[in-house]
Amino acid sequence: MFSNTKEVISALADQKYIASDEIGTVLFLAEKLGKPVLSEGPAGVGKTELGKVWAKATGRTLIRLQCYEGLDESKALYEWEYAKQMLYTQLLRDKLQVILKDATSLSDAANRLAEEEDVFFSERFLLARPLLQAIISPEPALLLIDEIDRSDTEFEAFLLEVLSDFQVSVPELGTLTARHQPMVILTSNNTRELSEALKRRCLYLSINYPSHEEELRVVRLRVPELNQRVAAQVVDVVQNLRAMDLKKHPSVAETLDWAKALVMLNADNLDEHTLETTLTVLLKHESDVQRAKRELNGGNLTRRGGTGRPSLPSNFQGGRPRGRS
Q1: What pTM did the predictor assign?
Q2: Please, what is the average pLDDT of the chain?
């Protein structure tokens, strides 16, 4: 589909996703080698979004499995709807009596029932969950296994078996094998260490917070209606917040939320009042908000990279606009 990494990066750019050379290379190799991709990094840096846009870029059906503590095989793979099967049996009871009416022996009756068993043991009673949906999908699919680190180690071990063969044994139906081997992207926020066995089967991709220039490109691409000067100021503030010792640093997703919020507020200037009243779009802990406000009052939050160069308009000095008490 793609002949080099530049084409991969270009395809992602068409979906408004700015990819590094590393991302382009890993996805290119994953396509060629048919291997899953394990993407690790802080929450909100674009790992899940990468799976979504790659599905669009390659024309695959996106199938997402959100992991959580306690996730088990029945919730991830399939469930057999026994209640529905019993309902069918009750509804077809009269028909069964007609079929068995002339049976001369138990063996004859059993043989006649066997001829009709496809009615009662078929995929109509199979409730496919994301893993099985990806395997039996009639079209090429991308399986996004989100936050695998939130699942239990037992589920991780089960997942290894499924990803190795891309086939599943269903006692009522037999073995179901993938019609098209799905592309698999797993994401992890590093809340726990994943097994070496899982990492060994995947191509590893680390996605971290972007540089100032990269994040500014993202903001301008995803929120083009934001004033370019304000966009630069937004990224300055976010980058300085990430340099602070906070409980939760603002993610790229939150940067974009903030940029969109400023557009909604018709902000053409990032002054102290606007900063103070919208900080909670970026920060989700009260202690982080209060610390950021102290830095703002000291003039540190609005200076880029610790160089002392103000990133706010010229009327903003020392964390307070001129003429305001």
Answers
A1: 0.78
A2: 84
